[in-house]
């Protein structure tokens, strides 16, 4: 049944969404269809509502008004098809945990986490580490990795349950330009199999890899980047990101 649903419905469908934490609306009249194998980036100013939208899609924030469907299903948190890499992942770097153990923490079944991992789970963890080019670090302590390497391990952890959609909230914050490029290259490779939705402030880098973009500042502006992709690939590294962001906020391409 799931296989049928996966084929006929969009991974994410949002209709007439309004959301507020307190009195003021943080998101207004959001409508969005994310199609199979889209690589969608969410851009916008600080406080514009990007993380709020991702948390609504993942079911962490409860819906106030409007509708979100994941593969046609209403309750996102019940669907085992979403991997989520949150903005601030609290991994205690002083805790002597290995990379492979961090990946296996992506196990949905809590009982398995406490009663040890099976050989197949270790094999699975190595497979997902290979997908993010981190297999050789499987036995390393997470504390010994660079910020960019650690972020790729967290992506592997989110991949552990074979998601069809991967949501990432600023995976490249505080990561240098080459680590940042490696992460987006990893996401581009993963995108051959799964739908990617990523919040980013690295506008010029992410636009080279994404196929669609939305600009969110309470309201949403949608951009299909496929026709512009070559322009972004050849973009000067000295492009003004603020101007680019303003342009995406105003234009409707
Ligand atoms: N738990 C919360 N309770 C009340 N207000 C919140 C909460 N989380 C976020 N907000 C407010 O909602 C608005 C949108 O916040 P959100 O974190 O979604 O923005 P963002 O676009 O992700 O910002 P940034 O780029 O800085 O991460 C902000 O005004 C923020 O202060």
Automatic annotation (TrEMBL):
CDD domains: ABC_Metallic_Cations. It comes from Poseidonibacter ostreae. Keywords: ATP-binding, Nucleotide-binding, Transport. The keyword Transport applies. PROSITE patterns: ABC_TRANSPORTER_1, ABC_TRANSPORTER_2. This is ATP-binding cassette domain-containing protein. Gene3D superfamilies: P-loop containing nucleotide triphosphate hydrolases. SUPFAM superfamilies: P-loop containing nucleoside triphosphate hydrolases. Coiled coil: none annotated. InterPro entries: AAA+_ATPase, ABC_transporter-like_ATP-bd, ABC_transporter-like_CS, Metal_Ion_Import_ABC, P-loop_NTPase. SMART domains: AAA. Belongs to the ABC transporter superfamily. Residues 12-243 form the ABC transporter domain. The keyword Magnesium does not apply. GO terms for molecular function: ATP binding; ATP hydrolysis activity.
């Amino acid at each position: 049944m799931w296989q049928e649903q996966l084929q006929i419905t969009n991974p994410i469908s949002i209709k007439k969404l309004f959301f507020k934490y307190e009195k003021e609306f943080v998101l207004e009249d959001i409508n969005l269809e994310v199609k199979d194998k889209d690589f969608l980036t969410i851009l916008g100013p600080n406080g514009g509502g990007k993380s709020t939208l991702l948390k609504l899609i993942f079911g962490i924030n409860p819906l106030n008004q409007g509708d979100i469907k994941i593969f046609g299903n209403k309750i996102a948190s019940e669907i085992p098809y979403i991997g989520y890499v949150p903005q601030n992942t609290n991994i205690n770097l002083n805790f002597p945990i290995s990379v492979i153990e961090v990946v296996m923490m992506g196990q949905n079944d809590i009982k398995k986490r406490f009663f040890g991992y099976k050989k197949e789970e270790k094999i699975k963890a190595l497979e997902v580490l290979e997908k993010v080019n981190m297999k050789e670090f499987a036995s390393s302590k997470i504390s010994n990795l660079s910020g960019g390497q650690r972020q790729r391990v967290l992506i592997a952890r989110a991949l552990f349950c074979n998601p069809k959609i991967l949501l990432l909230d600023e995976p490249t914050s505080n990561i240098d330009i080459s680590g940042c490029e490696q992460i987006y290259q990893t996401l581009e490779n993963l995108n051959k199999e799964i739908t990617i939705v990523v919040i980013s402030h690295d506008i010029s880098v992410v636009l080279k890899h994404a196929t669609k973009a939305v600009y969110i500042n309470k309201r949403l502006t949608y951009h299909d980047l496929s026709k512009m992709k070559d322009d972004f690939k050849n973009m000067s590294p000295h492009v003004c990101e603020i101007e680019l962001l303003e342009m995406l906020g105003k234009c409707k391409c």
